[in-house]
Design a protein that fits this description.
binds S-adenosylmethionine; seven-stranded mixed beta sheet; alpha/beta; Rossmann fold; globular
Length: 196
């Protein structure tokens, strides 16, 4: 899988564009900056946006090509952030985060619960979790994401992954994606907001 992502990100174009995800942007625009973790951050579009707003950003991805593009984007936007090349299960940090955003972080079913349970521990008490990913209804839509039901999200699957969070809202939404060449068109997504 890592090879697939390195190949995708080796193009000069940004696979999901250079602008932040719309849901992420709308949430960040109404919150004061703090310390943010962006797991599986790809080519850095959300990390760069958060850094430009004054957030202390830690991002990671397994892809070296993604890290390279993220740092190029940060430089072009004259902002700075920490981007690590890491597998999600190896991620560690001494200081907890005010916010974690899971953006289209789809993994094989056996890895799903272990990865999210591990990363959720890095949210500080009172901190926020945000999530957007493709729903099982997105199969065959042609707007992006895995085409394998087991790797997609449902509201019940996400509620279970985020069960340690209070005031948890999880919902399904029909949206139009316009995020680079790989996220385009009518899509069914799951979104979530929770507080630890
Ligand atoms: C669809 S992309 C999303 C990138 C980014 N979050 C965005 O929305 O622009 C999924 C990303 O997950 C990363 N990924 C998948 N499994 C991973 C793992 N176990 N550890 C770290 N990164 C992983 C891939 O390398 C890829 O960059």
């Amino acid at each position: 899988m890592k090879q697939l992502w390195n190949e995708r990100y080796s193009d000069t174009a940004y696979a999901y564009g250079t602008e932040p995800n719309a849901f992420f942007k709308s949430q960040l625009d109404q919150r004061p900056p703090g310390r943010i973790l962006l797991p599986a951050e790809g080519e850095g579009r959300n990390a760069v946006y958060a850094a430009m707003l004054g957030w202390d950003v830690v991002a990671f991805d397994q892809s070296e090509a993604g890290e390279k593009k993220a740092m190029q984007l940060a430089e072009a936007k004259q902002t700075s952030l920490s981007f690590r090349i890491e597998d999600a299960m190896e991620f560690n940090d001494d200081t907890a985060f005010d916010l974690i955003f899971y953006g289209f972080f789809h993994v094989p079913p056996a890895a799903l619960q272990p990865i999210y349970t591990h990363l959720n521990t890095f949210v500080k008490p009172g901190g926020t979790i945000l999530l957007e990913g493709f729903s099982t209804r997105n199969i065959g839509r042609g707007s992006g994401g895995p085409q394998n039901e087991a790797m997609l999200f449902s509201t019940s699957r996400i509620k279970s992954l985020l069960q340690d969070f209070q005031t948890l809202e999880v919902w399904e939404e029909e949206i139009t994606l316009n995020e680079g060449p790989f996220h385009q068109g009518a899509a069914s997504v799951i979104r979530a907001i929770g507080v630890k």
